[in-house]
Amino acid sequence: MRRAVNSALLTVAAVPALLAVPVVGPLPEQPHPVAPTVVSVPLSGVDPQALAEGASAVAGASDVVSGDVSGDVSRGASAVAAASVAVRPAILTPRRTTAPFDLVAVTWQEPADPGTRVRVRIREKGTWSPWQRLETDDEGPDDGSAEARAASGARDGTAPLLTDGADGVQVRVDTPGGKALPGLAVDLVDAGRSTADSATAYRGSAAEAATPRPGIVTRAQWGADERLVKAEPVVNQKVKTLVLHHTATTNSYTRATASAQVRAVYAFHTKRRGWNDIGYNFLVDRFGTVYEGRRGSLSSPVTGAHTGGFNGSSLGVSVLGTYTATNVPAATVRALAGLLSWQTAQYGINPRGTASVVSVGHTGSRFKAGATARVAGIVGHRDLGYTECPGKGLQGRLAGLRSTAAARMVPGLTDPRLSPPAVPAGTGSITFGAAIPTRQRWALTVTPFCGGATVRTVSGTSSDRITGTWDLKDSAGDPVPPGVYTVTVATSSPVGSVPAWQRYVEVVQTPDTAVPPAAPDPSPGPSVSPGPSV
Questions:
Q1: Residue pair 273/155 in contact by the 8 Å Cβ criterion
Q2: Kind and range of the H or E element at 448?
Q3: How far apart are CA 33 and CA 52, in angstroms?
Q4: pLDDT for 132-165, tens place per residue?
């Protein structure tokens, strides 16, 4: 349940009239773990009064969808069409008043029959919403993964619907023949509240022009209860694409309640779906604030549970909200551009390029185990799974986000310098330095000025600044002889390269490195006339 925050009262007695008393306000609360509360209510039967009130009209009404499901892309669409005439309510509850909750979902024990439809409506701020369809959740760990095995026996269910502190719910489940699903329940998650949430919500993305890491609210700052994490993170060997999602919500949450939205998803994924951690690597709210998702994602390509079948070759970013028929806020687009640019640069992905990814299998995937999908560097969830996620609004933004990310990843060198221009042989080193706008691969190559084989190559991958040092040794580790050398620096990013940069340096001969003259040959030789003077 929500925790009340008590204000401290300060009582001052017998204060002289001319004495100024400082007013001491409460210190700002520091971020701390916030334990969520999950309530699961069993569902059974059809309430006659609810039917009489007209709830049956939803069967023929157009859906206001959490996840924007349409029949032509839904898993088992043909089976749904064939079974639609036999689908009728198995569960229909009356409207129920509840304690405030931030997330609602419907779960069950065994896979649902094709054609099953789940709808809910909620009461927010005293008003009941229209019926909203919850699609069957096709997110989750890859089939056969350790996380999937650990979650075996966990409940199946719908994608969650986030709320802004709803306090009422009504559920309708229609199945072929009206047969109830085993263990059917509605799950309500109260993410808790913290006065620290107001402070963390304003720490938004700072990336505008290049590809540094944007401002990100960490797990500690959004109040993650780390006791919910079930296993240590697994790191992807190679990331080939970034997958964009949305979480589904009424879009009415405030800056101060956005952290609670993240905590609610975290609690549902771990406590009801049985996953190791929250499924997404990062989340973005409608105000442009970026949140760290699955633990470890700030520094490593951690395997998520966001796109079943492809988690091992992708990272997942989810936007808090529903964008089926709603424009994406400009602040969200800017934050996504900064986050996706940073991630594509970090893991060597060309946002506008394509890559082949192989499915390892998942019930919600469009691709069977072993099948290859050709995908762009940034894709929507619907491109890989049976879903309309991330909604038409976000899906329509993908082309622009790819172009923006690619433009920010163009490599370049700012104020490149090589110093010093001359170094005594056998001592010191020569260093190249330059500022760079994005993460770049670079190689510093040393060759003799007069031509010949490469003497030494130093290479690496850097962000913000390149620093490369040549220690005046060749590739075998031996000191190079005095002379003039050409230093060439080549740089590239996943979207291209820039012309190579060159300078000349001299390794100067010193008395210690001078080559002594050859000793005269004592044996007499043929008489040779002196040559011309030079």
A1: yes
A2: strand 440-448
A3: 45
A4: 889 877 788 888 888 888 877 678 888 899 998 8
Torsion region of 158: left, alpha or beta (phi above 0 gives left; psi -120 to 50 gives alpha): beta
> For residues 306 and 351, is the Cβ–Cβ distance under 8 A?
no
Count CB atoms within 10 A of the CB of residue 38: 17
- Which residues are within 8 A (CB) of 136 and not within 5 positions of it... i.e. 6 or more apart? 75, 112, 116, 118, 156, 157, 158, 159, 364
From residue 309, how far is each of 69, 185, 374 by CA, in Å?
20, 27, 14
- Please tell me the distance from the alpha carbon of residue 165 to that of residue 257, in angstroms, as a whole number: 9
Q: What span, in angstroms and rounded, lies between the C-alpha atoms of 142 and 35?
A: 28
- 189 forms bridges with which residues in the sheet? 38, 103
Give the integer Cα–Cα distance in Å for 328 and 145: 34
Taking the C-alpha atoms of residue 398 and residue 396, their distance in angstroms, rounded to an integer, is 6
Helix (H/G/I), strand (E/B), else coil: 383: helix
Distance of CA 390 to the CA centre of its chain: 14
Distances (CA, A) of 493 to 344, 357, 431, 498: 10, 21, 22, 9
Q: What is the CA radius of gyration of the chain?
A: 32
Q: Which residues contact 489 (CB under 8 A, 6 or more apart)?
A: 413, 416, 432, 434, 442, 443, 444, 445, 466, 468, 500, 501, 502
- CA 215/CA 284 separation, integer angstroms: 11
The per-residue pLDDT for range 419-443, each reduced to its tens digit, is 999 999 988 899 999 999 999 999 9
Paired tokens of 31: 């971020």
Chain centre to alpha carbon of residue 188: 26
Please choose, from the candidates 430, 436, 506, the residue with its C-alpha nearest in 3D space to the C-alpha of residue 468.
Answer: 430
Cis geometry, peptide bond prior to residue 390 (ω within 30 degrees of 0): yes
The model's pTM is 0.82
The DSSP H or E segment spanning 147 is: helix 146-150
Q: Which of 207, 247, 244, 201 is nearest to 67 (CA)?
A: 247
Q: C-alpha dihedral over 227, 230, 236, 237, to 10 degrees?
A: 120
- Which pair of tokens denotes residue 474? 């060749």
User: What is the DSSP secondary structure assignment for residue 365, as one 8-state letter?
Assistant: B
Specify whether the CB–CB gap between 402 and 421 falls below 8 A: no
